[in-house]
Here is the input.
Amino acid sequence: MAKEVRTQFAGSILGRLWWVFGPFLQMGLYALVFGLILKSRPLVGGIEVPYVVYLCAGLLPWTVWSSFLARAPQLFIDNAHYIKKIRIPKFVFVVQSSAVAALPFLVTLPLFLGLAVILGAVPTFMGVLGYTVVTLTGLLLCMGIVMLLAYLNVFLRDVGQLVPFLVQVLFWSLPICYAQQNIAGGLKEVLQLNPFSGLVNLAHAAFIKGTLSSREDLLHVVAMISLSWLVGLFVAHRTDKWVVDEL
Here is the structure.
């Protein structure tokens, strides 16, 4: 894991500080466009919240999940020298990559809490705890998807070219930059097909309301995690014996 972190910031002057600057620069851009220019006023459970808090509450977990997904296609390719020489379960690299993706969240969460307090949206202890659990639970969903993408890209390198586009599609179909109440009814049902939609709803509810009471979103998360693992494990089982030859 330490090697992956060093490689990620090789040649960078600021190094691990990009864990903080990257997400907050992105949040600042979206806050300018949607908060100041479009004057969005999001509601969570009937509660109007400062746009920046709503944005950050969804964007911070998404930064963790998307960075994990973005590394998926190269996961086995970048570790080919280990896979060829050592009999090690390939899932180890999936777990290692998930841990690296979670580190920036642990660094930026205290800064986000400070910002929320300044803006008058003080979360409860249980809210912060639930928010953290939701974010880490999202990594479970990502693991199934990452297994699928990592195996497929060994045999079909076009997968690596498609992933950045797919990550963007997933992001813009989530209620992160815009509020759910601004989505038309029919379109809202379509956007619920996004595997991360339940997680984002739970993240907003946890941080802003201090509750994970939405049974619909909980069931959505469980279903998506189960489906992603079933597909990921199926592909892994069917292709694992040929990975070394392809690498």
User: Anything to note?
Assistant: The radius of gyration is 19 Å. Residues 2-6, 8-15 have pLDDT under 50 and may be disordered. The chain has one domain: 2-246. The CA atoms of residues 68 and 101 lie 5 Å apart.
